[in-house]
Write a structure and sequence with these properties.
The chain is of the alpha/beta class. The protein has 6 helices and 18 strands. Helix 2 packs parallel to helix 3 and helix 4 packs parallel to helix 5.
Amino acid sequence: VNRALFGLRIGGVTLLVFMLGIPALRFRSPRPSGVFTAVMLDTSRSMSIEDVPAAKGKQSRLAAAQGVLLASGTPDDPGVLLALERSSNVLAYAFDAQASRVTDVERLKAQGQHTNLFRSIRDVDSDLRSVPLAAVVMLTDGCRNTGGEPEEAARLLGARGTPLYIVGLGNPNPPKDYEVMQVFAPRRVRRNTEVEVYATIRHTDFPQPFEIRISRGDTPLVSKKVEPASGTDITSLRVAFTPDHEGTATYKLAVPAAEGESITDNNAREFAIHIQDDRLPVLYIEGSPRFEYRFLRRALFRDRDFRRVGLLRLASDRFYVQGASEA
């Protein structure tokens, strides 16, 4: 009996040790709440404007935004990022034409040529669709030059119950500025064919007529006086020129810098066009050697824009081909 009891005890202890030794998988939530907060920082070129008061003079809008987010990083002055991390998982995004996730906010530069608030908010919403998103915090100067209305993107977030908080930066009274926002031109054209270029110009606090210039390198091609649209600071225009060379060339559409303009690096935009010296193929079929045939053949022959092949019917089963070797 004693041996049986001793065996049961040994078995019980062995079973207990085995149960305690089973590997356990533990999940740890990054934050007690388990929710996420997205912080969006504008990195478009307008954020490089130095119009935010600082301890010594003025600082750029981007530097001011980085100061708001990072501060000194101490418990007494943690900055927005560390403060938010106390209650949620924080994901940082840089945006201009679109949004992308970043890990080092301090190293961001204001280099984006386009600002699309609508798409940037939509990108963040799409990227975090599968996680509980508590809020989106956007730091921006509010300058946009492409895309839809930011209110529409805010409604997208509102549909999932996510508030959008916007921190505005910069002087509420924008400085005088010309900006070439968009340029549309055909990618391929034929030589000696007129090219139509469509552009959108922002003229902040410049109500007077301005000049548009198109150049190739240091060679000016065309200039045009433009009357700004009334009731808005955005004007769309059309300007045309005729290229006289072959190959791919880069052109520049620019607005000359005006007096009192503090930002001039956005006054121009480049675009490329490939000019082809190919001729249009023309097959001319005539049923008899009439005078009109000879006249039209000579006219087409003199025009270097056409590759002409003539097919003249001499009889029911006889044809005379002209210009096939030239084509």
